[in-house]
Amino acid sequence: MQKTKRITITSILGLIFGFISWAICNFAMGHTQPLSINLVMILFNVLLGFSIGISSLLWHWALHGLVLGGMFGVILGLVASGTGSEFIWPLIFGFIYGFLIELISTVAFKAGIASS
Hints:
It is built from 4 helices and no strands. The protein is mainly alpha-helical.
């Protein structure tokens, strides 16, 4: 039950952060992206949340979120296939979103990683 609660919470948080990424990219940065890129951004963050939820690494929650968020940020930065800001922004937001997903799910919802 605890694992299902954690996966659900982290996936929903990933979806929320996906829409935040979409809003930042399309409104704050002043240019609109094609629908396919918007969907990849949103689904990638849902996958980040889901991966954090299913992970069984018994690390401290902050380190766990930072490492997984950084890994997903690097992958998304490479998918953006650029250098400079096209690579850096997904990496920065990957760290931030991974940390926040873990913080909210572990501290606020008390859905930490269940030890076996």
